[in-house]
Write a structure and sequence with these properties.
The chain is 32% helix and 43% strand. By secondary structure, the chain is an alpha+beta fold. The strands form 2 sheets. A 4-stranded antiparallel beta sheet has the order 1-2-3-4, with no helix packed on it. 6% of the residues are buried.
Length: 122
C-alpha cells in the first residue's frame, strides 16, 4: 500500500496535512486532510488527477503510473481562476505598481540632485 503525506501552511499560519492511501492490489484511493476524508476512488490502476479545495486554496493531486510503479504529486494551483488566485494577482499588481512608482521617484530625485550639482558648480 502506498502512503504519502504533504504539509502546507496557509497565509494565516494554519497547518494542513494532506494524506494519500493507494492500495496495491485493490487500487482504492483515499485522500484525507487533517484526518478528515476528502475523497475516495476505487480501482485506480492508471494515472489519475484530482482537484479539491483546502481552505481557499485549490489543491491538485496527481497519481502517475510509470510501468508497475506509481508516482504521487500534490501541489497548490496558483493559475486557476479562483477567488484566492484573483486576490493573489491583485496583490502582485499592487506590488509591481509600488515598485515602479518608487523607482520613478528615485530616478526623478537623482535627476534633480545631478541637475542641482551642475547648476551649483556654475
Amino acid at each position: 500500500m502506498a502512503e504519502r503525506n504533504w504539509r502546507f501552511t496557509n497565509d494565516l499560519g494554519r497547518a494542513y496535512l494532506i494524506g494519500l492511501f493507494h492500495g496495491d492490489s485493490t487500487g482504492h484511493v483515499v485522500v484525507h486532510c487533517n484526518n478528515q476524508v476528502m475523497l475516495v476512488d476505487f480501482n485506480v490502476f492508471e494515472s489519475a488527477h484530482y482537484s479539491f479545495f483546502v481552505d481557499d486554496e485549490l489543491c491538485e493531486l496527481d497519481i502517475l503510473r510509470a510501468g508497475q510503479d506509481y508516482h504521487y504529486n500534490c501541489h497548490i494551483n496558483q493559475e486557476a481562476d479562483t477567488p484566492k488566485n484573483r486576490w493573489r494577482q491583485e496583490r502582485i499588481a499592487q506590488m509591481e505598481f509600488k515598485n515602479k512608482t518608487a523607482w520613478a521617484v528615485f530616478g526623478g530625485l537623482m535627476v534633480l540632485a545631478i541637475g542641482a550639482v551642475i547648476w551649483l558648480r556654475r
